[in-house]
Design a protein that fits this description.
Radius of gyration: 19 Å
Helix content: 25-40%
Strand content: 25-35%
Number of strands: 15
Number of domains: 2
Structural class: alpha+beta
Order of helices and strands: EEHEEHHEEHEHEEEEHEHEEEH
Shape: globular
CATH superfamily of the largest domain: D-amino Acid Aminotransferase, subunit A, domain 2
CATH class of the largest domain: Alpha Beta
CATH topology of the largest domain: D-amino Acid Aminotransferase, Chain A, domain 2
Number of helices: 8
Mean pLDDT: 96
C-alpha cells in the first residue's frame, strides 16, 4: 500500500508531498513536531499532543494553520487513509517562509511502530551519550525540528549496541534519553529527573506520574545523579510510542537484577489499561 501524506490539508502520495525550499523548518530546524501512538485505529492522547503543539507555537512565535479540532480531524483522516490500526503518527509543523506572519507547513504521516513484544520482555540496554544536555537552553522543553543532537545520540547508541543513549546535563546530573524520559525505582519509590534538569517533559512521563498517584506509589521529581541511577532497584524509559520500557542495563552493568522489575511491570500494565 502506498503511504498517504497529509500536507496542508491535502492528501498526497508520499512521493508527491513537498514543502517550499525556503521554509525555515528546512533551512534552520525552525518548527515543532509531535509523535503520536495509534492503537486500534485511534490516536492516543491526541488532545494532550495538540495542546503541547499549540503551547510550543505560542512560545516560538509560530502560527497554527488550523483550529485544534480541525487538526484532530486531519489526524483521523490520515490514519484512515493509511489503514493504520497500530502504528506511529507524526505531526510536523514548520515555521514556513515568514514565521509569525503566516502559518507554516503542516505535514502528517504514519509509520510502523519501532518497538516489539521481545523488547519489553528483555528490556533495553543504554549508555551515556558523549553529548551533554544544556539545561539552560530555552529549546530543551519543546519538541522542535532542531533535533540533530538527539539523532546523533541515537546513532552513537546503535554503533555501540545500545537501545538508547542517555544524556547528562552540564552539571553532571541525569537529564533524559535521546528519545525518552527516564525513571528509577528505589525501595518502592519512583524517581524521575525534574524538568529543570534539561529535559522535554514528555506526555507519557506525565501519564506515568499520574498513574503512580493512582496506584498509591510514591513518586518524586528531583535531580538524579548517575550513581543513583546505577544503584537503582529498577529503571524504565517512557515516550508516547514505547509507553513504559524496562531499562535493565547501562553499559554492561545490570540495573538491580538485570531483568524487568515488578514495579515497572505494574506501572506498564496500568498505563496500558488506562489509555486503551
Amino acid at each position: 500500500m502506498n503511504t498517504v501524506i497529509c500536507i496542508n490539508g491535502q492528501f498526497l502520495p508520499a512521493s508527491r508531498a513537498q514543502v517550499p525550499a525556503l521554509d525555515q523548518g528546512f533551512l534552520y530546524g525552525y518548527g515543532l513536531f509531535e509523535t503520536i501512538l495509534v492503537r486500534g485505529g485511534q490516536p492516543v492522547l491526541l488532545e494532550a499532543h495538540l495542546k503541547r503543539l499549540e503551547k510550543g507555537c505560542t512560545a516560538l512565535g509560530m502560527a497554527l494553520p488550523l483550529l485544534l479540532t480541525e487538526l484532530g480531524s486531519l489526524v483521523h483522516q490520515t490514519i484512515k487513509l493509511n489503514d493504520t490500526t497500530d502504528g506511529a503518527l507524526r505531526l510536523t509543523l514548520s515555521a514556513g517562509t515568514a514565521p509569525g506572519e503566516a502559518a507554516g507547513n503542516l505535514v502528517i504521516s504514519t509509520r510502523p511502530l519501532p518497538y516489539s513484544t521481545p523488547d519489553y520482555q528483555k528490556g533495553f540496554r543504554a549508555g551515556w551519550s558523549s553529548f551533554r544536555r544544556n539545561e539552560q537552553s530555552p529549546l530543551v522543553k519543546f519538541k522542535t525540528l532542531n533535533y540533530l543532537e538527539n539523532v546523533l545520540a541515537k546513532k552513537e547508541a546503535r554503533e555501540r549496541g545500545w537501545d538508547e543513549a542517555l544524556f547528562l546535563n552540564t552539571a553532571g546530573y541525569v537529564a533524559e534519553g535521546a528519545v525518552s524520559n527516564i525513571f528509577l525505582v528505589k525501595n518502592g519509590q519512583v524517581i524521575t529527573p525534574s524538568p529543570d534538569q534539561g529535559l522535554l517533559p514528555g506526555i507519557m512521563r506525565q501519564v506515568v506520574l499520574e498513574t503512580c498517584r493512582r496506584l498509591g506509589i510514591a513518586a518524586q521529581e528531583r535531580p538524579v545523579s548517575p550513581h543513583e541511577l546505577l544503584d537503582a532497584d529498577e529503571c524504565f524509559l517512557t515516550n508516547s510510542l514505547m509507553m513504559v520500557m524496562p531499562l535493565v542495563k547501562i553499559y554492561d552493568r545490570p540495573i538491580g537484577s538485570g531483568q524487568p522489575g515488578v514495579v515497572t511491570e505494574e506501572i506498564k500494565m496500568a498505563v496500558r489499561d488506562h489509555i486503551s
